[in-house]
Hints:
The protein is mainly alpha-helical and 296 residues long. The chain has helices at residues 2-43, 48-53, 69-100, 103-116, 121-140, 148-172, 176-184, 189-200, 202-218, 221-226, 244-252, 260-295, and strands at residues 57-58, 65-66. The chain contains 12 helices and 2 strands.
Amino acid sequence: MQYKQRIFIDNTAKIIFKSTGLLVLALLGGIFFMLLYNSISFFFKVSPLDFITGSEWNPTASEPAYGLLPLIVSTTLVSCGAMLIAIPLGIGTAAFISEYANPKLKAFLKPAIEMLAAIPSVVIGFLGIVLLGPHIAEMNNLPNGLNALNGAILLAIMALPTIITISEDAIYSVPQTYREASYALGASRWQTLRKTTIPAAAPGIIAAVMLGLGRAIGETMTVLMATGNAAVFPKGFFDSVKTITATIAIEMGEVPYQTTHYYALFAIAIVLFFMTLAANLTGEYFINKFRKYHAA
Length: 296
C-alpha cells in the first residue's frame, strides 16, 4: 500500500512539475506570437528594412517617420555603458566577499547588497534626476545631466545586486581542492583567485553578467526619467537618448488604438524581444564553451 502511494505521489509530482514547465513555455510563446501578430499589421504598411535602418523616429509628424535605428543605438549605448561599469565592480565585489571578507563582514555585505535590488526603479530614476544628473552637468559644462551616461550609471547600480550575488555563489562553489592545489604550487591568494578560482567559476559569472545585461536592456522607468528621451542618434554618452523601453512606456498610453503608430510599438517590442534573446543565447554559448573546456 505504501509503495503504491509513493508511486502515485511521484507520478503526480512529475505531472505537476512538467505542466508548470510547459506552462512557462506556453506563456513565452503566447507573448511572442501576440507581438508578432500585431507587428505584421505594421509591416504591411512600412517596410521592415526601412523600419530597422531608418534614422528618424517621429510617428506624430505630418509625414510620420518610423526609423528604429536611433532607438536601437541608444538602448545599446546605455546598456553596454552600464555593463562596462557593473561587470568589473560586480565581479570584484563578489571576489572580495567570497575570498577576502571575514565571516562577520560577509554576513553583513550579502544581505545589504541583496537589499539594493529591492529599491524601486522609480526611486533610482529620481535620484538620477536630483543628485547624479546635476553633478554630471556641472562637471562637463552641460545644460543638463539627463543623458546616456546618467542612465548607464543608474542601470549599473540596478544590475549590481544580480551580478554580485550570482557571481559570489559561483566563486564560492568552486571546490576548495582547486585553491589548495594552487597554493601547493606556490601561488599567492591573488594569483589563485585570478588564474584558478575565477576561470573555474566562469560559467556562473557569465550567467550573472547575462542576467545583469537583461535587467539593463529591459529596464523602463529609470531610463525614462534619467536619459532625456531624445529620439536622435547619440554621438556619445553625454547626449540625451531615448531607449526602446522608454519609447513604449511613453507612447503606448497615448497612441490611438489600431493605428500604424499603435502597431509600430508592437514592432519595437518584438525587436527588443530578439535583442534580449540574442544576449541570452550569446551567454549560453560562452557558458557551454567554458563547461566543455573544464570537462576536458
